[in-house]
Amino acid sequence: MGNTIRGIIAFIPSNSCQNYLSGDLKEMPIDKMVDLSSMQLRRFPLRVCAFKELVKLYLSDNKLNSLPPELELLQNLQILALDFNNFKVLPQVVCSLKQLYILYLGNNKLKDLPPEIRLLKNLQTLWIESNYLTNLPTVICELTLLKALHAGCNPIRCLPKELKNLKELRSIWMSGSLLSEFPPVLLEMPFLDIIDVDRNGIRFFPSLVHLTNLKLVIYDHNPCQNAPKVAKGVRRVGRWSEETPELMKKFDVETEVEKAVEIKETQPAPTKENANETNENPVDVTTELN
Questions:
Q1: 218, 173, 183, 220: which is closest to 199 by C-alpha?
Q2: Which fold has domain 27-287?
Q3: CA distance 157 to 165
Q4: pTM
Q5: Closest CA to 59 of 8, 98, 25
Q6: Closest CA to 81 of 27, 35, 25
Q7: Residue 129: how many CB atoms within 10 A of its CB?
Q8: Which of 88, 106, 193, 286 shows the smallest number of beta carbons within 10 Å?
Q9: Distance from chain centroid for Cα 91
Q10: Which of the 8 DSSP states describes residue 270?
């Protein structure tokens, strides 16, 4: 009954009705997090923009298709969840949030990403799964600190050669796409830990033995006639393999990232050579498999 009422109220644009949907947001939350997931929201509650110290904002599973320019005030935001909404275009204001290191855009109606997303220089984890992307936007290849890319369940047939420029990338998830061959660019990325090409149309797998950092390759549900050859100790999930590791969910990832940040805060300041491992750029633990 509660969801039915919310669904009806969502169509009423009055401030009182919108306030009912978003709940009590009078003061800055102590944990610097606002979770407005599954609230039937059709427009973003502007009063959230008053919380300039906000670090996490969850707007998942609503009916949003736009965001106000006032969102730019949240310059301390590090995690933004916009998945399961109605975005056809990524609002430009998102690209102004330069401290973001995790961005959830999955399960929308995106056909592309704006060039301005290259401004998110601190971004380490990007979820764009289950959209309408026919190509992986090449602008992603300019996100030099990106460690995990979740782009599955899009009608993507190939990956751009520029992807190899992402030297920090450790995991790529392309399950449920339209790949007809194993992406050649991945063979030039020996720094990858995880490759997921489950549920595609790949008929032949080249040798992956030379990918020295590889820890896990998921290739199940492909019409392949062979299993990919891998180095000793690499786990394979697919035909001719019985291993099925349990993969981490996105909120588990965030918890582990926070633990990593806490550990780093107790350590001495990093040198210039390992500046990419500072608190502003916490490690994405989807790359840390035992």
A1: 220
A2: 3.80.10
A3: 20
A4: 0.78
A5: 25
A6: 35
A7: 23
A8: 88
A9: 16
A10: P
Distance, CA of 98 to CA of 206 (rounded, Å)? 39
Strand order across the 125-127 sheet:
33-35, 56-58, 79-81, 102-104, 125-127, 148-150, 171-173, 194-196, 216-218, 235-237
Per-residue pLDDT tens digits for 201-256:
999 999 999 999 999 999 999 999 899 999 999 999 998 664 444 444 555 555 55
Distance, in Å, from the CA atom of 213 to the CA atom of 80, rounded to the nearest integer, reads 30
Give yes or no for residue 270 having a pLDDT over 50.
Answer: no
Instruction: Look up residue 138 and give its two tokens.
Output: 């090449």
Distance CA 262, CA 90 (A): 32
User: How crowded is residue 12: how many other Cβ atoms within 10 Å of its Cβ?
Assistant: 12
Which has the closest alpha carbon to 33: 243, 216, 258? 258
Do 225 and 247 contact (CB within 8 A), yes or no?
no
Structure tokens at 233: 């100790």
Cα(236)–Cα(242) distance, integer angstroms: 8
27 vs 5, which has greater pLDDT? Answer: 27
Q: CB of 248 within 8 A of CB of 171?
A: no
In order of 107, 136, 230, the CA distances from 112 in angstroms are 13, 8, 34
- Which of 133, 76, 123 is CA-nearest to residue 103? 123
Of residues 39, 40, 95, the one with CA closest to residue 67: 95
CB 207 within 8 A of CB 231: no
Task: Name 217's bridge partners.
Answer: 195, 236
The dihedral sign for the CA sequence 224, 226, 231, 232: positive
**Residue 271 structure tokens:** 């040198």
Q: Mapping DSSP to helix (H, G, I), strand (E, B) and coil, where does residue 151 land?
A: coil
Q: How confident is the model over 177-188, as a mean pLDDT? A: 98
